[in-house]
Amino acid sequence: MPKIKMPVKTPHVDMTPMVDLFALLLTFFMLTTSFRPQEAAIIDTPNSVSDKQAPDKNIMTIFVDSIGHVYFNIDNGKDSSKHFRKDILVEMAKNYNLTFTEKQVNKFATLSSFGLPIKNMAKWLDSEEPKDKERMQKDGMPTDSADGRPSELWYWIRVSRQLNPDSEVALKGAASADYKIIKKVIDILQDNKVNKFNLVTNLQKDEATLNDVK
Amino acid sequence: MGEIIQEESGKKHGSKPKAKKHSTHIDMTPMVDLMCLLITFFMLTTAFSKPKVMTITMPEKIDTTIDNPPPITVAGFRTINILVSENSKVYWYTGSVDSKEGALTPITKTDYSKDGLRKILLDKNKDAFIKIEELKDKVKKGLLVMADSTLNIQIKELKKGDGKTTPIILIKAGEGAKYKNIVDVVDEMAICNIGSYAIVDMSPKEQELIKTIQ
Q1: What does the alpha-carbon distance between residue A213 and residue A202 come to, in Å, rounded to a whole number?
Q2: CATH number of the domain at B74-125+167-214, please?
Q3: Residues on chain B touching A26 (C-beta within 8 angstroms)
Q4: Would you call B42 an interface residue with chain A, using a CB distance cutoff of 8 Å?
């Protein structure tokens, strides 16, 4: 019997469907992506049943970490042609008799959360070393009033709200933070006539049913 | 189109030697590699779940520079005080220890579990809770068709009740209360469909009283 000769074939796999699929996935991810913002501190938020979504634009966020340091973040607003962060920094500088260079202001506009006294802001913006930047933020934003003036946090909130009246306030506190510090932040907010705010929480389903009352 | 023209011209000049056929196979492996990399990048940097928020409204600070209307007196039995203390301890009583009538029920220790705080709140808010849950049930089963906004308005109305018997919860944060504890209690309000509650400070008398209870 003659042997069947196997034809020598190159192990070529047709990759076209795979490429199609990948292109699809890539397009999906590129379109739906919203980048995770870099945050000054890792905050483990408490759980709640609320399933309301946080607004993604026009939001000012105040972070309180577990040891009670306060950080602040404000976005550039819905209208990308307006750069609220730039205006806010310039206005803040006026309040504290400071000046920032054009470069510093532009850099500030691209960053996110921060927590440091404004007198260190220029140095922080110039610094390229991540370790230095971290060290400058080790005490968070000052929340105590000093020299007979309201606290720096108060000024940040005030200026942000003056320049962008549509901005909402979100408070992202760590579950293990002392309520005293949260209360302090809330007091500062209320001094700025902000009485309604969003507490950032993790969704955890839990409900009471009619059987519980019968 | 191009192919058809070529075919026709091929027929015309049949004697012409055909151009050497090149394989149309493109090696797609590098493309697949690149796409894999990009997909991985997007998957890792995407923030899928947008943060959830819980909206709370704080009572406006009393402005002492203007004449304020006298505070509204509320029947003592409607007022439920939840005293949040350190180490996740929680106490409750009705009435007010600072008023003439004093506390209507003794200060009792409870906990954050289903059989603790929730049982008390559900018991006090039974009527409103049952009405709201029944309404929600009907909408869920399709017996009643209404828009989400209409449903929310109706629930709000039901939460208010007749304004005479529905409980008013005062959440009082004492020394050493954690942020998590407060969020848990506020969450309990949402679960038990309670319409009126406020976060206030604990009075010195209450601070003293809870120290005596173990």
Answers
A1: 27
A2: 3.30.420
A3: 35, 38-39, 42
A4: yes
Q: Where in chain B is the domain with CATH 3.30.420?
A: 74-125+167-214
Contact A202 B118 (CB under 8 A): no
The ipTM value here is 0.77
CA B77 to chain centre: 28
Interface contact flag, B55 A196, Cβ < 8 Å: yes
Q: What is the pLDDT along chain B (214 residues), one digit of tens a residue?
A: 444 444 444 444 555 666 777 777 777 888 888 888 998 888 887 776 677 888 888 888 777 777 777 766 777 778 888 888 888 888 888 888 777 777 778 888 888 888 888 888 888 888 888 888 888 888 888 887 888 888 888 888 887 777 777 888 888 888 888 888 888 888 888 888 888 888 888 888 888 888 887 6
Query: What pLDDT score was predicted for residue B18?
Result: 66
What residue ranges do the domains of chain A occupy? 47-203
> Could A53 and B45 be called an inter-chain contact, meaning their C-beta atoms sit closer than 8 Å?
no
What pLDDT score was predicted for residue A17?
A: 87
CA distance B10 to chain A (A): 31
Gap between the Cα atoms of A173 and B108, Å rounded: 29
Do residue B84 and residue A15 have CB atoms under 8 angstroms apart? Answer: no
DSSP state of A40: S
Cβ atoms within 10 Å of B101's Cβ, excluding its own:
11
Q: If contacts are CB pairs under 8 Å, which of residues 81-110 in chain B contact chain A? A: 84
For residues A136 and A124, is the Cβ–Cβ distance under 8 A? yes
**Interface touch B28/A212, C-beta < 8 Å:** no
User: What is the model's pTM?
Assistant: 0.76
Q: What secondary structure does DSSP assign to A63-95, as a single string?
A: EE-TT--EEEEE---S-TT--HHHHHHHHHHHH
Nearest-CA distance from B36 to chain A in Å?
A: 7
User: What is the per-residue burial (b if ≥16 Cβ within 10 Å, else e) of A90-123?
Assistant: bbbbeeeeeebeeebbeebeeeebbbbbbeebbe
